[in-house]
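Me: I keep going back and forth on a fold encoding question. No explanation is needed for now; the record alone will do.

Assistant:
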Amino acid sequence: MNAWGDFNDAAPLPDDGVSELPAAGQIALDRLPGAGQPMPPHGGHVAPDIEQIAAFLDVVFGYCDGLIPVRGFVDQGQGLDTKPHNIWVPADRHAAASLSAYATWAAREGSAVYVIPGTVAEQGQARAEHVLQMQTVVVDLDAGDIAAKLAHLVHHLGAPTLLVESGGRTGEGAAKLHAWWRLTEPAEGQDLARVCALRGEIAEKVGGDLHFRSAHQPIRMPGTVHQKHGVQRRVIIREHRPRAEFELPDLAAAVAAMPTVPGLEAPIAAPGATRPSLDTVLTTPVREGSQDGWTRFQGASAAIGHFVRMVHEGRLTGEEGWEAICQYNAACLRPAWPLDRLKVEADSIWALHVDRNGPPLLRVAAAPPGAIPAHTLGALLDDTSLMPDDLIGPRLLTPGGMLVLGGAPKVGKSDFLISLLVHAAAGTPFLRFTAPRPLRVFYLQAEIQYHYLRERLQQLRLDPAIVARARDTLVVTPKLRMLLDDQGVPLVAAAIRVAFPDAPPDIICIDPIRNLFDGGPAGEGENDNAAMMFFLQGRVEALRDQVAPEAGIILAHHTKKLSKQQVKDDPFLSLSGASALRGYYTSGAILFRPDEEQTERELHVELRNGPGLEPMLVDKRGGAWVELDRKGERLVRRDIGRKLDAERMRRHDVILRLIAEEAEEGRLCTANAFASKFENKRGLGGKDNIRERIGVLAMKGYIKYRREARDLGQPYTKSKNGYLVVQDMLLATGEEAVDPETGEIIPATVRVLPSHFQCPRSEALLEVENPEVWVLHDPEEPA
């Protein structure tokens, strides 16, 4: 049926099922009997096998963390018509018991049990982008000469870890197989995409099921019951090699080298199977079981694709397009698909169409005459009224404006934002930014849980007067598990009205975008421009319009992983997600570390409503954010300069430690003797370099001198300065002493106190006034 390719863009689900796991029909595990509890009797003759379930879970999920999405779908041909049932099972040692109980219930209800062979983070997640980890590569052999295909795979890739008979049979009566190769560790991120690509490449080369290119494709679970058309068979493990594991790079290389199985040809259309006209598809009833010229799936895909194109081109509204799809479903599909499945297919084809053809031209209701304001040039030139006050000046956040604050994880973005909001709520300056009065601020944050939020706020080193003014004007939410969608926007609007019943807020802050993002009906993420514009206009602006049309919006956002040079060249290119965000906001701020080994951050600000601000060097000192003076920064060869500084500090530490160690062994050293002994050792360089470093340390007060040490058992020295002394230095006397607390025999030591120090101004050697008090002259260290 290649002639249907233009209609059939969405992947079909296994056994005429659904490839996504919709939220409808979810079953909580606590509603099923637990391990060791009796199950109600079931009418079937085949019961699930918990040992096979456990073996399968070990191969497919043994190294993974998170939740396993599980699907209960009624097998065809039983005369049953019930909704799919979904559960999410933690991938832990209790998973086998939980899934055994669920499989027993499913067998009684006539349901097949499918799993997505990867883990997700939260219940309700089952789309491809939700899958976080996978530890296997699988191929579904469901047609043709399965024995020859399996032999081809074993020859080129090695025997699989697990070989499963799915319970189905080919037209020739051969058992359909699932072959699993377990990896040595779970695949994540880019490796996860590589695993999915490998699954598709293997399927292409042996004529397997190509739908396993997608991470969310479900598959039957061994140990459960296959009962299509009322015939029960257990899905069984034919072979299990628990020690067979594969490195992902090695397996990928083997797949790349594997030729296509001999005799495999691309499927061709049956004689006379030409693509029918769209009118024919939209008006011809089609029954299940491929009884007609095309299947229900092909007909539904064609109809949905047609109406999706009309909505995308603006010829229908979204509501009109969905209504037309539902009308086709009711009129032509026999029996009709459940609405939840129809919605999943429509969303899938919409997402694919937008990805291929760009953002849609969506129809909206026409604005009433005169609703759009317009002004002549003369009116704008003649209007000399006062400008509205900035909410946060200078022009950082204007009435009705939007500020986006970006930063990498752990750079201090949320901490910086909290400090900014506290000062705004108190009406006091923060760094260079000012508020004209105490502002009413609603901080919608979705990252920090309640107890850690209060701990962070209590750790802020703020003036008590500032805190007193902001106590009631800053309202903060703890971590939320929600989206700003059709249900979330009214909930947040209601919370804001409760927080500020007398007057609307001046600022609404959302932190971060990613945790609350809703890309609209197509379900796209923050990397899609159309989805980002939908979120900004249809969610964030809609929220503001409901509670305070003139309020300022602050959005916290993550940044991409770019090189330091790229960030310095154009900091705002590092904002994560779609580029539409930068074109939409009125001001942006990027906080980043120019050097990961230093605590200082740079803050870059760009303004649409005013001149740009000079970059600021900021840091958190003593619990409060401060701006640092940039005049002392190196202008050229900064990296080399920092390395040289670090090397000098290392040498200073080594010299001080060696002087103390020599004393602990009973030896005091003069500067010349020390330099001669440790020349070209410990990375200290030559004698002159060592003497120079000793001179620097003496000028700063880290090294002092003792002119006469014969009372300590040391020989007379002719050195004009005497012996080197460091703080808290102990000299071994060569005798033994008893530790009064432990009774242990330890070397006896005496304290070595200095008699002279080098004046940091005149460089003269002066007597120490009080040897018991050690004074430093280093301006960078506390005295």
About this structure: The longest strand covers residues 175-187.
